[in-house]
Amino acid sequence: MDFRSDTVTKPSQAMRDAMINAAVGDDVYGDDPTVNELEQWAAERHGFEAALYTSSGTQANLLGLMAHCERGDEYLCGQQAHNYLYEAGGAAVLGSIQPQPIENNPDGSLDIAKLKAAVKPDDSHFARTKLLSLENTINGKVLPLEYLASARQFVDEYGLSMHLDGARVYNAAVALDIDVREIAKYFDSMTICLSKGLGAPIGSLLLGSKEYIAKARRLRKMVGGGMRQAGILAAAGKIALTENVEQLKVDHQNAKYLATELAKLPGFSVKAEYVHTNIVFAKLDESVDIKTITAKLADDGFTVTASNPLRLVTHRDVTKQHIELLIEKLNKYI
Ligand SMILES: *Cc1c(COP(=O)(O)O)cnc(C)c1O
To answer: Structural domain boundaries of the chain?
Structure first.
């Protein structure tokens, strides 16, 4: 019972069967029919011209940023953005792209006035501002559609492009009960992680225009991301998108239940209004010795990261019964 992340999900039997039976070829030659089919299908499904299958979400973001920006360009992003904080500085290191982080609002959005103030004038002192990169969901929070519309208006006004780190964009779409295209339509490019709540073992997608994806494909080869018989993995990726989206609704219900129960524990505070999807944060006061508690939980078969705030993630491999049991144990150990 692993609550660290939705990345721990294991491939379903349907995925394993599809992987065994996948038709494959050498994808670097463009010969893998399963990868080609996934890329064509995903482009159409999400309202883009083209798609690229990548080895990870980090790689999809890196290629995505590098395909928008040249050396000496910059992208605007959130201080809490995954592609600023958690990707080893890849865009700066490998792309020579300068990030310009903006403090995230409590709801995860970036203040449009602050974004406008951060756009650099065309002057040889400055990096060239090219791109706004948003993240949805961000720390489990869904950006409102009205916010996406205002961000689009901002980038259009300033001649920038707009990228979505959509690692969990399906969680956002399911939480809003809308088709994922209703989110995707605001963006020039978007990533999707197939290997989180959607349950594929490996893989992400980058979506965009034909020209943009052709550029990203070259960059993927450059960073060593050209894979050969990748159809074995892409077969599971297709199932993630066709069969596993519904499950996210259950994950979100479980997260809400978990948040409600955690909030009842002494020393735990949960901002329930920000539990939109499958991630729950609980701030712990000093009375809670989380290291000792997580060590005891480990003996009971629960894997939980000892952190403050405590971050618990629901997914297809944890059930409501597991959560009930977790709460029971937490009550005992506090
Ligand atoms: C997980 C995640 C990524 C990176 O995905 P990996 O496949 O782990 O490299 C990118 N962005 C966000 C928002 C994520 O949650």
So the answer is: 6-243, 247-333
Rounded to the nearest angstrom, the distance between the alpha carbon of 206 and the centre of ligand 1 is: 12
Atom 4 (ligand 1) nearest CA = 57
Ligand 1 site, residue 64, Cβ cutoff 6 A: no
What spacing in Å lies between the alpha carbon of 246 and ligand 1's midpoint? 21
104-115 per-position pLDDT tens digit: 999 999 999 999
Q: Which two tokens stand for residue 326?
A: 């977790």
Answer for the pair 270, 262: CB distance below 8 angstroms, yes or no: yes
What CATH topology corresponds to 247-333? Aspartate Aminotransferase, domain 1 (3.90.1150)
Let me know if domain 6-243 sits in CATH 3.40.640.10: yes
Q: Is the distance from the beta carbon of residue 82 to the nearest atom of ligand 1 less than 6 Å?
A: yes
49-71 pLDDT, tens digit each: 999 999 999 999 999 999 999 99
